[in-house]
Design brief:
The complex is a heterodimer of chains A (427) and B (447). Chain A is 40% helix and 18% strand. Chain A has 427 residues and is of the alpha+beta class. In chain A, strands 1-2-6-3-5-4 form a 6-stranded mixed β-sheet, with helices on both faces. In chain A, strands 7-11-8-10-9 form a 5-stranded mixed β-sheet, with helices on both faces. Chain B is an alpha/beta fold and 447 residues long. In chain B, helix 9 packs across helix 12. The two termini of chain B are 43 Å apart. Classes of the chains: A alpha+beta (427), B alpha/beta (447).
């Protein structure tokens, strides 16, 4: 009864998942840092350039870092595609970093390094193209706004949390018409400096060759003063509790957005908190899901994002969809009550161990997919901290004590500045 | 025969517990196909059940029912414990539909695959069915209106659902439905295990059979056609108009389908495409101009070209899309561009075949909807590998319909199509209505 497909494919594909050591490189010129993460189960090399500034660093006009991402990427490539392209540009602007990824066959390493190095040069493209790229950013911004309502719901909640439209919050739609080429090039001059750039080379490349190529293409760069992270000093008012109601026909469901700001003490950077962060967040999410999804039926869904900044500030943003008939006020009360009582029964050693295993399984899964693997490296690296690979992640979470996890959780559920949006769907 | 024997024993034990639930099960032994192992350290199994009713409301209900059944826990594990077990072991479950079947695919690392199959079996034989959970799943699966998110891929999927399930509602109240899932009619396996029979046996052990096969109702006799014409959903609150040109194509064979796929990719897939080059980089009119090729059945696909533009620009951009389409269809393509697309389509197929068991199961079922006991061949894969690029461009007119046969969907903005455009059929879509409102009005759906 059993039959097999004898197939012509399957020549260049991964065979197994291997551990991935993160090796810091020396002789990197003025770069903030550079790393190589060898793995030979994918026959490719990825060069990630992490400019350690993102949308939070837009101090005047929101969207400037994103506009520059477009300009730098196309400048490093070609602006009108006279010949069919064999590769796509992969670039993205996150809250704290702008990330460019050049990928290819190991034999193409020189081309990938040239494209990466070119990002540090002032964008050189015809003036008309540079100016008109604003239209593309405008189109993209409106498009995302329509396609993903959580973007603007989150933005409104953060504006209320920080009492600001700059830095950790923004007002991107109001600012789109104000985008300017001059501001984008100024941003490049300030932020695309070697001391604000991290390089991660991963894939099928010997560490010695990666070190040689970094020296060859970035060895001439000079260290300089990196830009200040001014937004790290802007925090919510203590005791803030703000709730806003709105309605929109762009929403798919009635949605409660809940944001909270928690400060964790750190000695130097939040790198010391990474292990307890990942484990504690896993326990938090698991317990909330058990309470709100498995043990009761007042909610359709709950999704929570956490952002831990390098100074120990943590932003939590939850999106909750109540079941029909459950009011926003009731939903908020249930959610906050569950959070407040989350540690009434402290997590046992077994529950913490389960959270470790859950994280380990997640890391193993990420290692199987190239895109997820790169996202894993970017996650901690975006804060200028040494990147963590799925392979090195295992030892990180094993080295974290139960007491550290519990302390992190206690801080997470303690009263803190919050803002909520009650967003009603219109048909 | 041993499979059948064990299954029948279990029927006797379980039927009294399932008296109120609708049993979704085959009436005989499952057909089993073992495909090449995946190349990402994972094993997978797909259970295939025939859906008893293909009215859209019944399909959604059944999807919610299967999602509920696999969330119910086991005799030994509560639902929460069962989810935790899957999370810490890297086990995932996914539900999809294909033609008139509903599919459940489990993936797990090789090392825990045998345990995962025991777990799958324990989930399915557990008769608990939570009404609250079903209600929640029903809400989560309620389709989002195309006028809400305006994502091209979402609109295309809505159209694909319309073609597969043209009857929107058969009038049956599904709010109190309850399901049990028994013996699948097909099983598709991806594992490195040389002798998978014990694995399969553990997965189906105790699953009940139906007494007799039941043909699905509300299944279209003939492939449904999309109408020609224009659908316009005006919205004064918005700066953007989504343009989507779409056609339901039925191909003579796999070679013709691959030709159409490659030419459509040449028009709009990736940043090397004509749409990207002209509409984004030269006209500066859209961020996301793209083409999509969505196979929905054997030798059938939805062909789509889309862009989201400033509302006053849509007529000019639609003209440009038409020009790109007709020029490519007429054979004006660069050899290098076509070679790039062929390489990328092939590597995309390879990657999905090696890592995505649901996609591979779908390809298998396209070719063998009733299973097979003979050697498995997927002509589409062969046609892709053997495509002759030097002659492919000249086959555009045989493989692609003229642009005038496309349905045009416009969502957002206030600028309506011209009177001339409306001559082939026109429907104005209120924002509060689903896309089917206009599809039905344009006369495509058999009722």
């Amino acid at each position: 009864m059993l039959r097999s497909i004898v197939f012509l494919f399957l020549t260049l594909l991964p065979v197994s998942v291997t551990a991935q050591e993160v090796i810091p490189l020396k002789n990197t010129g003025g770069l903030h840092s550079a790393y190589v993460v060898p793995r030979n189960d994918f026959n490719r090399v990825d060069v990630q350039v992490l400019v350690l500034s993102g949308s939070y660093d837009d101090d005047q006009v929101a969207g400037t870092a994103h506009f520059l991402e477009h300009l730098a990427a196309f400048s490093a490539d070609t602006y009108v595609l006279r010949q069919p392209r064999e590769r796509d540009l992969f670039a993205k602007t996150s809250a704290v970093a702008t990330i460019y990824t050049n990928s290819g066959h190991p034999a193409e390493i020189d081309r990938l390094m040239k494209l990466s190095r070119a990002l540090l040069d002032t964008p050189k493209l015809p003036e008309e193209f540079l100016q008109s790229e604003k239209k593309i950013v405008e189109r993209e911004t409106y498009l995302r706004e329509r396609q993903y309502p959580t973007r603007w719901l989150r933005r409104k909640a953060l504006q209320n949390l920080y009492g600001s439209t700059r830095g950790r919050a923004n007002d991107i739609i109001a600012d789109v018409p104000k985008l300017s080429l001059e501001a984008a090039l100024d941003f490049h001059a300030q932020h695309y400096v070697p001391s604000n750039v991290m390089l991660i080379i991963s894939g099928n490349i010997p560490p010695e060759l990666a070190a040689q190529k970094v020296g060859e293409y970035f060895g001439d760069t000079q260290a300089s003063e990196p830009p200040e992270k001014w937004w790290l000093d802007e925090k919510p008012q203590p005791g803030l509790r703000k709730i806003e109601r709105l309605s929109s026909n762009r929403l798919y469901d009635d949605t409660l957005v809940y944001t909270k700001f928690v400060e964790y003490p750190v000695e130097d950077t939040s790198i010391d908190l990474q292990g307890e962060f990942f484990i504690a967040v896993s326990i938090f999410e698991s317990r909330i899901r058990k309470a709100l999804i498995f043990d009761s039926f007042d909610f359709q869904s709950i999704n929570t994002n956490f952002f831990l900044a390098k100074n120990g500030d943590m932003e939590m943003v939850s999106f909750l969809v109540p079941m029909p008939g459950v009011s926003f006020d009731t939903a908020l009360e249930i959610f906050e009550t569950k959070i407040a009582g989350l540690l009434d029964t402290p997590p046992s050693a077994q529950e913490i161990e389960t959270a470790r295993k859950r994280n380990a399984a997640h890391a193993s899964s990420a290692a199987r997919r190239p895109d997820d693997f790169l996202a894993f490296l970017e996650n901690v690296g975006s804060d200028g901290l040494p990147p963590i690979s799925p392979g090195s992640y295992a030892s990180l979470i094993e080295d974290t004590t139960d007491a550290e996890v519990l302390e992190f959780l206690e801080n997470l559920i303690a009263p803190a500045p919050m803002s909520a949006i009650f967003a009603t769907k219109e048909d | 025969m041993i499979l059948r024997f064990l299954s029948l024993c279990a029927v006797t034990l379980l039927l009294p517990l399932m008296a109120r639930a609708e049993l979704i099960a085959a009436s005989g032994d499952p057909k089993i196909a073992q495909l090449n192992p995946m190349r990402n350290g994972l094993s997978a199994i797909t259970f295939v059940w025939e859906m008893p009713d293909l009215a859209m409301n019944r399909v959604l209900s059944l999807n919610a029912g299967l999602a509920t059944a696999i969330s119910a826990g086991t005799a030994d594990l509560t639902p929460f414990e069962a989810e935790t077990y899957r999370e810490v072991n890297g086990i995932s479950l996914g539900v999809s539909t294909q033609d008139s079947d509903i599919l459940l695919t489990l993936t797990a690392p090789h090392a825990v695959f045998a345990d995962a199959l025991d777990h799958l079996n324990a989930l399915l034989v557990n008769p608990a069915f939570s009404k609250d959970w079903y209600k929640r799943q029903t809400l989560l699966l309620t389709p989002v209106k195309a006028t809400k998110n305006r994502r091209p891929d979402h609109v295309i999927n809505v159209l694909a659902d319309y073609l597969r399930f043209p009857v929107t509602d058969d009038g049956v109240d599904t709010s109190d439905a309850e399901y049990a899932f028994g013996m699948p009619r097909q099983i598709i396996l991806r594992t490195t295990e040389r002798d998978p029979a014990p694995l399969i046996q553990s997965a189906i052990n105790g699953l009940p059979l139906r007494n007799a096969p039941v043909a699905p109702t509300h299944k279209p006799d003939q492939p449904v056609a999309l109408p020609k014409g224009v659908i316009f959903a005006p919205d004064p609150d918005g700066e953007e108009t989504l343009i989507l040109a779409v056609h339901h194509s039925i191909f003579d064979d796999a070679e013709q389908q691959i030709t159409a796929n490659l030419l459509l990719d040449y028009m709009g897939a990736y940043q090397g495409s004509e749409m990207f080059r002209i509409i984004r980089q030269e006209m500066r009119a859209a961020y996301d101009p793209a083409s999509d090729f969505l196979q929905i059945a054997r030798n059938q696909a939805l062909l789509a070209l889309s862009a989201t533009v400033s509302t006053q620009d849509w007529p000019a951009v639609l003209d440009t899309i038409r020009n790109i389409y007709e020029t490519t269809r007429a054979g004006e393509v660069s050899a290098q561009g076509l070679a790039n697309n062929h390489r990328r389509l092939r590597s995309g197929f390879e990657y999905r075949f090696a890592t995505n068991p649901s996609w591979t199961a779908m390809q298998f079922l396209f070719e063998y909807p009733d299973g097979t006991t003979s050697e498995i061949q997927i002509p589409l894969f062969t046609a892709l590998v053997q495509a002759r690029l030097e002659t492919l461009a000249a086959a555009g007119k045989d493989s692609l319909p003229p642009f005038s046969d496309y349905l045009i969907v416009l969502i957002g903005g206030t600028q309506p199509p011209s009177v001339q455009m409306q001559q082939d059929g026109y429907c104005e879509l209120p924002l509060s209505e689903p896309l089917r409102y206009c599809l039905d009005q344009l006369g495509a759906a058999p009722q």
